[in-house]
Prior knowledge:
This is Sialidase. It comes from Coniella lustricola. InterPro entries: Sialidase_sf. This protein is mainly beta. The chain has a single domain (38-418), classed as 6 Propeller (Neuraminidase), CATH 2.120.10.10. 7% of the residues lie in helices and 36% in strands. The protein contains six helices and 24 strands. Strands 12, 13, 14, 15, 16 and 17 form a six-stranded antiparallel sheet that branches. The chain has a four-stranded antiparallel sheet with strand order 1-24-23-22. The longest helix has 7 residues, at 213-219. It is globular and about 55 Å long.
Amino acid sequence: MAGSAASTPNPDSYWRASPPIKYTDTVNAGWSQISNATDLLVYNGVAENRTYAHHPELYYSVKTKTVYLIHSSAPIDEDSMGQDIWITVSHDDGQSWTPPHPILPAALLSNQTNTYNFTYWCDASIWQRALQALTVVEVNGVVYTIGQTTDFYCWGDIGSGSKAAGRIARAVTSSGTEADDPCWLSMNNWTEVHLFNETVYGTEYGMKFCQDKDAINALIAEPDEVPAWGDWLYNHDLHAADGVHYMQENTHAVWIVDDSSITGGYWQRFWRDITATNNTQSVWVETTISIRGADWYPHVREEYGNKIFQTNIPDAKTKQFLGVLSGSGDRYFVSNSRNNSELIRQPLTIALSRGADLSYTNIGVLRTGADPFPAPDTRDYKNVGFSYPTAVQVGNSLIVSYSEDKQNIWVTYVDISDLP
């Protein structure tokens, strides 16, 4: 990716969106809706009788002229037993999609075939092995869907939390069907502790590593490919420069041209503040002049000493997406920019940083007006709104996917010329 701008700005100057946020407007936050955008529902949680859906990830293959979309799906609750990964594809630049179906199966033991909710497994003090859609990549002419394990514990004196047991991938065809068995990109001590070898990944697929493991892992360590989640991020706290706030859900990085840099520019990416108390509800920024990102995560894995700084970009405590438009090099930022104590995740906005101005000045509403009454869960963990965006440019169109109420998966496509 390539941008066109100047030196690193002061963290307090990134956000100059006009007009300013109108907090009393809970629907549009005072901003205008983007015109001529088309919205498509690609996964309906109630219709599928699986009322949790989240973590969409998009990829466009130039070779097959196919847009791939994967997302997480679970019977009722987030990060619960039975959570697997689904796929749908588009062959007409996002204007229509195939019926979604599972591509990476749930990691269940032979005696865990019944559908229970999150609370059931917690009450039974049983680890919940969940798969979370991570990314889609293309290596050696093969497209791989990749899932992140995120296994939840919730019992006794140890409290609750997640541990990651590795990453699992599966090669797919351009029609979105399986091209090979699932395989592993990484494992750790939690892989054995959580008994993945006794799930379908061991009993049927043999716990094998992917043939292209090294190439895939090298690709997703590149600054513009690093996924938002990882084994190390789940198993450790990555603190920002202040040593207090800790981060997850990094965006992909974009390259900013800067003649004053010895490498001709620098990478820029944003982080989400996931600190439980005294959360800043702001986006945090990190930069590096290293072309390979050699001095930041994932090449450097340290809980402290990270050069991540708070910006003035508002955030509703949720994931963002950062990208760059081919041709112009303008940066676009998709997020829930109306921060609020109710944790409502709307509107979903897209802000533009154009040309040499690294501030985000132009903004428009991509989606708003989510169903205020999602299907119930036992964690009380659903957020009303449209969130967790992912995006890909195909020709003159920008395709954006996101979840509604952590229950439905949508796609919006819009012509680049209609962006604010």
